[in-house]
Design goal:
Strand 5 and strand 6 (143-153) form a beta hairpin. This protein has helices spanning 3-25, 52-57, and strands at 89-93, 96-102, 106-113, 119-123, 133-140, 143-153, 156-159, 171-176, 181-188, 204-211, 224-231. It is mainly β and 236 residues long. The structure holds protoporphyrin IX containing FE.
């Protein structure tokens, strides 16, 4: 082999080595963010719920709308007007609508008769009208007359005050229209009066209901009367 051939081979080997060195050893060039690029705060990756509970936990935190609380009648709403939903309980007896609500202390009753005379209720009679705790109300010239009575005979009643007891009405109001009379009142569940009946929250009682179409006289016999039953709410 001639000297020139050996020189050519050496040059070729040197060129190849130099090319390999450039391709493999040259430092990598990182891209550089432009100096004007805005800084962005790192955002942690969104958590991916893995169970139904986790999904519920990730739900919006605003509270569920609560169902409207039932309207409780208070002494201040005894105003002679009975609006929709005012009382949680009602029943119609002998054409008279009877509304009621109680707590552990008092019973509020609303009566609506289709007449302009008195309207009355008797609570927990022993036999017919005997032993019932009556309340009779009438409205004349815009003025309510109301009385706490007691059934002192099978077909009779008289004022507690006449029978040695006391009138235990706590609050009352009435209103009259051309074709109906509204009487609302509040009595204690346990007045302690011998001419009243003790009423126990959660218990059920027979009731008497009557009205007179025209007369406000509490000693006038009823135009219509009937019997029914009410159940008191348990004490809250
Ligand atoms: C002074 C007024 C009253 C008189 C004179 C009177 C008279 C009578 C008479 C004679 C009876 C038996 C005949 C019948 O069944 O109709 C009777 C029954 C009855 N009365 Fe009276 N009443 C008076 C007030 C009331 C009141 C205020 C109520 C209710 C709040 C009432 C409720 C009833 C009921 C429900 C009966 C049927 C009882 C039964 O047979 O089980 N009464 N009343």
């Amino acid at each position: 082999m001639s000297k020139w051939v050996l020189i050519a081979l050496g040059v070729a080997l040197a060129a190849g080595f130099a090319t390999w060195l450039v391709l493999t050893q040259w430092p990598a060039v990182e891209p550089v963010a432009p100096a004007s690029a805005p800084a962005v705060a790192a955002t942690p990756p969104a958590e991916v719920p893995t169970t139904g509970n986790a999904q519920a936990a990730a739900a919006p935190t605003s509270p569920e709308p609560k169902p409207a609380a039932p309207v409780r009648v208070t002494l201040s709403s005894v105003d002679g007007v009975i609006s929709d939903g005012e009382y949680p309980h009602s029943v119609e007896i002998a054409g008279v609508k009877v509304y009621w609500v109680n707590d552990g202390r008092v019973l509020c009753i609303g009566l609506v008769s289709p007449g302009t005379g008195y309207v009355a209720i008797g609570l927990d009679p022993v036999e017919r009208m005997l032993g019932a705790n009556f309340v009779l109300g009438s409205v004349a010239e815009g003025v309510l007359t109301i009385r706490d009575d007691y059934g002192n005979a099978a077909t009779g009643h008289d004022a507690d005050t006449t029978l040695g007891g006391t009138d235990n009405l706590l609050s009352a109001a009435g209103h009259q229209w051309a074709d109906q009379t509204v009487v609302e009142f509040v009595i204690p569940l346990n007045s302690g009066d011998s001419t009243d009946k003790q009423l126990v929250p959660g218990s059920s009682y027979p009731i008497l209901v009557a009205y007179n179409a025209l007369s406000d006289d509490f000693s006038a016999r009823h135009s219509r009367r009937g019997t029914g039953r009410i159940t008191l709410d348990p004490a809250p």
